[in-house]
Design a protein that fits this description.
The protein is of the alpha/beta class. The chain contains ten helices and eleven strands. The strands form three sheets. The chain has a six-stranded parallel β-sheet with strand order 6-7-8-9-10-11. Strands 3-4-5 form a three-stranded parallel β-sheet. The longest helix has 17 residues. This is Esterase. Belongs to the metallo-dependent hydrolases superfamily. Phosphotriesterase family. InterPro entries: Metal_Hydrolase, Phosphotriesterase. Keywords: Hydrolase, Metal-binding.
C-alpha cells in the first residue's frame, strides 16, 4: 500500500482528502551565503503560519506539500513544529534548488554523495527530525540545465529509483523539462515520477500536453496569483486536451520569510477551495473531476 510520507508519519489514501501539492510554510529566497539565511525563531513561524493552516483545515484540506528545498531555506524542524502545532501533515522534500542557490557543500559533493544524502533523507529521516522526506525538489535554469544542476538531477534520479519517490522541478521552459526527462530515463527512472512545476509559465500549450503525454505530471500552481478567469480557462483547456489524469493544482503561496520583519504577511492557501473550484464547477466541470484534481492526483503523485 502506498503512503504519503509526512511530518506526522506515513499517511494512507483513506486517511487523507484534499491535498495542496505546491505551497510554502517557510522559505528564504536569498542565496545560502547571505547573512541570516534561513534563520528564524520557531515560535515566530508557528505564530504566523499556524492560523493559515487552521483556515484550510476548516475547508477540508488534509495535507500540503512544502516546496522549500535545499538552497531556498528548507527548515524541516520548522515544518515539523508548525505541523505539530496544528495536527496537520506536511510533506517535506529533499534535494536542492538551481544555481545560484546551491550551497558550497552541494557544489563540492560527488553524484554518489548527493545520491546517498537524498536516499538517507527519503528512507531514514531529515536531519534529526524523526520523519522522512516525502519527495525530491530541484530546479533548472530557464535556458537549460547547467553542469551542476545536471549533477543534482542525476543523483536525484538514482535515489528516486531506489524509493519510487517523485522528483519535482521548478522548470519554466517545456523543452528543458523534456531534457530533464531524458536524463531521468537515462538513469533508469521513469517520466511518470516527475512533476513539471510551474507548467503554466510555458506559454506554448503544446509543451504542456507533450509533457503530460510523456507521462509526467504537469502542475498549474498559480491559483490565487494568476487572474481567475485565465486560470480557469487553462485548467479547462488541459482537461479538454486529455491531461486530467496528470494535472495538479495549487497556489505556491504562504509563507514566513526570514528576510522580512516578523516574517512578512502570509498569502492564504484558500483560493483554490473558495474561488477556483466553485468557478470550475460553474463552468460545467463535474464533482468527480474536481475530486480527481484535488484528492486523487496529488496523492498518486507524491505517495510511494
Amino acid at each position: 500500500m502506498k503512503h504519503l510520507r509526512t511530518t506526522l508519519g506515513p499517511k494512507s489514501k483513506s486517511e487523507l482528502g484534499m491535498i495542496l501539492p505546491h505551497e510554502h510554510v517557510f522559505v528564504d529566497l536569498r542565496t545560502p551565503d547571505q547573512p541570516g539565511y534561513a534563520e528564524a525563531e520557531i515560535e515566530d513561524v508557528v505564530r504566523l503560519m499556524a492560523p493559515e493552516i487552521e483556515r484550510i483545515k476548516k475547508l477540508g484540506v488534509t495535507a500540503l506539500v512544502e516546496c522549500s528545498t535545499g538552497g531556498v531555506g528548507r527548515r524541516a524542524d520548522i515544518d515539523l513544529a508548525v505541523s505539530l502545532a496544528t495536527d496537520f501533515p506536511i510533506v517535506v522534500p529533499t534535494g536542492n534548488y538551481r544555481e545560484p542557490w546551491i550551497p558550497e557543500w552541494v557544489r563540492q559533493a560527488s553524484e554518489k554523495e548527493l545520491e546517498a544524502w537524498m536516499l538517507r533523507e527519503l528512507t531514514e529521516q531529515i536531519d534529526e527530525t524523526g520523519f522522512q522526506a516525502g519527495w525530491i525538489k530541484l530546479s533548472a535554469g530557464d535556458d537549460g540545465m547547467t553542469v551542476l544542476e545536471t549533477k543534482i538531477l542525476r543523483a536525484a534520479a538514482r535515489a528516486a529509483a531506489q524509493t519510487d519517490a517523485v522528483i519535482g522541478s521548478h522548470t519554466i521552459r517545456g523543452r528543458v523539462v523534456m531534457d530533464q526527462l531524458d536524463v531521468i530515463e537515462a538513469e533508469g527512472y521513469r517520466a511518470d515520477r516527475f512533476i513539471s512545476i510551474h507548467t503554466q509559465e510555458e506559454k506554448d500549450f503544446a509543451y504542456n500536453v507533450a509533457v503530460a503525454e510523456r507521462g509526467a505530471w504537469i502542475e498549474y500552481d498559480h491559483v490565487g496569483r494568476g487572474e481567475d478567469n485565465e486560470v480557469a480557462e487553462l485548467v479547462i483547456k488541459a482537461l479538454e486536451a486529455g491531461c486530467g489524469d496528470r494535472l495538479l493544482l495549487s497556489h505556491d503561496r504562504g509563507w514566513f520569510d526570514p528576510a522580512l520583519p516578523m516574517g512578512g504577511i502570509p498569502k492564504p492557501y484558500t483560493h483554490l477551495s473558495t474561488v477556483l473550484l466553485p468557478e470550475l464547477k460553474r463552468r460545467g466541470i463535474d464533482d468527480g473531476t474536481l475530486m480527481r484534481l484535488t484528492h486523487e492526483n496529488p496523492f498518486e503523485a507524491f505517495a510511494r
